[in-house]
Specification:
Length: about 280
């Protein structure tokens, strides 16, 4: 049965792939992004291959913007059945330069060098808002359509760092842990109204956001990129397409008794102690 699917951050690498996969299955897709030009391109790709999609500019941190988007979605596609909360990411202001603090770091004169003690509160708040509030608010707005219907699902996007924090990115790690926690909370809260809530925890996918952290300009791996590959038993970065089958499973009746889970899609990263 064709459903109405809303994806936030769907102009981005991972969720544009998921938007196209939903459309391929015959669902009607609302492609939402802060950057309308990115969303429009994804929607155009879908419609040019015979799928049904609309593009909308929406900021996941502003309720009126989400409410406006909902009005258009309801008018053009109908009542919402599935929400994928894909908008998220890190910010350089919430990132330390090194993994570990050494005493001499406090005296460093290197421009831009940041220890934990230099992290900017605004950067930390930006990352918490984007990932946590940016999941909480769209759910408040779009999930109302799901109440009283059957087969409705919410899919959040957590991360590996929600299980064990990654070095350098305390805000992003904490915010994604909050997303996983909220996934469980909401699954319980909405259990009596038949809305299931689950999350994906992608491992390391080479995207524009992390390309400079993981690869050098000549395409070779940075030290961090190499560390990740060494720590990933399957020996590669993820590809956006690796998320499709689990997404379709969690958002369909095939998983009808599954709610409140966070599924790692990580080539074994989270299972491996490194020894
Ligand atoms: P991406 O940067 O390609 O896509 C994110 C999209 O969100 C962008 O198109 C951006 O314009 C949009 N966006 C940013 N702020 C927004 C806002 N306020 N309102 C609406 N849209 C906004 O990133 P991606 O790699 O596709 O990541 C998608 C999700 O997966 C994110 O939540 C990310 O944290 C998570 N994730 C990514 C990886 C990875 O390796 N790439 C790993 C784990 C989790």
């Amino acid at each position: 049965m064709s459903k109405v699917v809303v994806l936030t951050g769907a102009g981005g690498v991972l969720c544009s792939t998921l938007a196209k996969a939903f459309a391929k299955q015959g669902h009607k897709v609302a492609v939402l992004d802060l950057k309308i030009e990115l969303a429009q391109k994804v929607a155009d790709d879908i419609t040019s291959t015979g799928g049904k999609a609309i593009a909308l500019a929406a900021n996941v941190l502003e309720k009126p913007s989400l409410e406006q988007a909902k009005t258009v979605i309801n008018e053009k596609l109908g009542s919402i059945d599935i929400l994928v909360n894909g908008a998220g990411g890190n910010h350089p202001l919430g990132t330390t330069s090194n993994s570990f603090l050494y005493e001499e770091d406090l005296m460093s004169k290197v421009e831009g060098f940041k220890t934990y003690f230099d992290l900017d509160t605004e950067g930390i708040k930006f990352v918490f808002d984007l990932n946590f509030v940016g999941t909480f608010l769209p759910t408040q707005v779009f999930a109302k359509d799901m109440i009283g219907k059957k087969g409705c699902n919410i899919l959040n996007i957590s991360s590996m760092n929600a299980f064990t924090p990654l070095t350098k990115i305390p805000a992003y790690s904490g915010a994604k842990a909050a997303v996983s926690n909220f996934t469980q909370w909401l699954a319980v809260h909405l259990s009596k109204v038949n809305v299931r809530v689950n999350a994906l925890a992608p491992g390391f996918f080479l995207t524009e956001q992390n390309r400079n952290l993981l690869t050098n300009s000549d395409g070779s791996l940075t030290q961090r990129g190499q560390q990740i590959i060494d720590q990933t038993p399957m020996g590669r970065f993820g590809m956006p397409e690796d998320l499709i089958s689990t997404t379709m499973f969690l958002c369909s009746d095939e998983s009808s008794f599954v709610t409140g889970v966070v599924i790692p899609i990580d080539g074994g990263f989270s299972a491996y102690s490194g020894v």
